[in-house]
Amino acid sequence: MKQKEIQQQLGPLIPAWFQAHKRALPWRGISDPYAVWVSEIMLQQTRIESVIGYYARFMEAFPTVEALAQAPIERVLKCWEGLGYYSRARNLQRGAQQVAAQGAFPKGFAAWRAVPGVGAYTAAALASLCDGEAVPVVDGNVIRVVSRLRAVREPGPPAAARPGMMRWLQPVIEASGAPGDFNEGLMELGETVCLPRAPRCGACPVRALCKGAASGAPERFPGLRKRRDVPERQFAAFVVRNGAEVMLVQRPPQGLLAGFRELPMVETQERPTLPRAKTLLRERFHLVASRLRYAGTLTHVFTHFRQVLWIYEVIGSPAADGADAAVPGFYRPETCAVTTASRRILGLGQRRRGGASGEG
Ligand code: ADE
């Protein structure tokens, strides 16, 4: 069959399958663009099962674009806590403020793309789901599905693969007759049928058009990409308790995990000895601890580095090193937005995705 014919046939099969087999998810069947927007931002880089609970809590806390626009950012971040990639939450609020000020939701790809924090991927999702515009969404699942359909072994990294995929999908989505269901259906197919290691070809609506399936070994497409090696950085982290409160430091207002609170930490080159840990605590946080205990280690994975944390517990109350020393304050950790790594150290449990907790 010619490529053009495959593209034409493929189009309507995806929305038809989606209508019959879509999972019941809390953001489906809702026509409110705000609800779709929140869900699409949460779904970026995060598994669906992890998003469901966050989505419900977030929509309860901020049910409308106006409510989100007016909320204190600390409350927004608190609601996002544990979901990772916190810049998404900040950008979502900035976008909500712009939309609330305009008094109407954007319509179409270009208008959505102009909203702060709405990238090409999200704009395509929103324009197709909310406005019925035929713009393909290309995420990791879609790249896998299309690579299999076309028996492409090396689509390359997502950023490089995306333009070619979009060009190939354009006539397909136009032939679909239902751009929103087409995009969501293709993602859904990747998440529930066209699985990375064990594709369920028996349940696939487009098996007859799939070159990967025809090869007899669809799981070979696309080939596995080498994992990017991320650098490792080591930190001494200090746990200083005072009843139900712990000493927490606020991170700078810009950059990684901006504004979040965390345990006092110092970057090191190796695991500090106890005397060295005491010195670090005094030099960096102006605290003199009479007793310190090494409490173990924990590794926290960010997108771009692996954080090895050497944990020290201060026994008793440390004294300030000098009368006017600026020492960190004590807080009840459950009342403020605390980084996932620090929450893990404090054993506060966490709602997180998969094996590695990602925070970008
Ligand atoms: N991934 C991102 N958005 C999605 C959606 N709307 N449905 C299924 N998977 C998705």
Descriptive report:
- It is a single chain.
- This protein is α+β, with helices and mostly antiparallel strands.
- The chain is built from 14 helices and 10 strands.
- The strands form 3 sheets. It has a 4-stranded mixed sheet. Strands 2, 3, 4 and 10 form a 4-stranded antiparallel sheet that branches. Strands 6-9 form a two-stranded antiparallel ribbon.
- The protein is elongated.
- It starts with a helix and ends in a 15-residue tail after the last helix.
- The model is unreliable at 349-360 (pLDDT under 50).
- The structure holds adenine.
- Adenine is lined by residues 40, 43, 184, 187-188, 191.
State the secondary-structure class: alpha+beta
- Which bin fits the share of residues in helices? 40-55%
Number of helices: 14
Ligand identities: adenine
Annotate the secondary structure layout.
Elements: H1 3-21, H2 33-43, H3 48-61, H4 65-70, H5 73-80, H6 87-102, H7 109-113, H8 120-131, H9 140-149, H10 158-176, H11 179-192, H12 211-215, E1 232-239, E2 241-242, E3 245-250, E4 261-262, E5 265-268, H13 274-285, E6 287-288, E7 291-301, E8 306-315, E9 319-320, E10 329-331, H14 340-345
Parallel strand pairs: 1-8
Antiparallel strand pairs: 1-5, 2-3, 3-4, 3-10, 6-9, 7-8
Bound molecules: adenine.
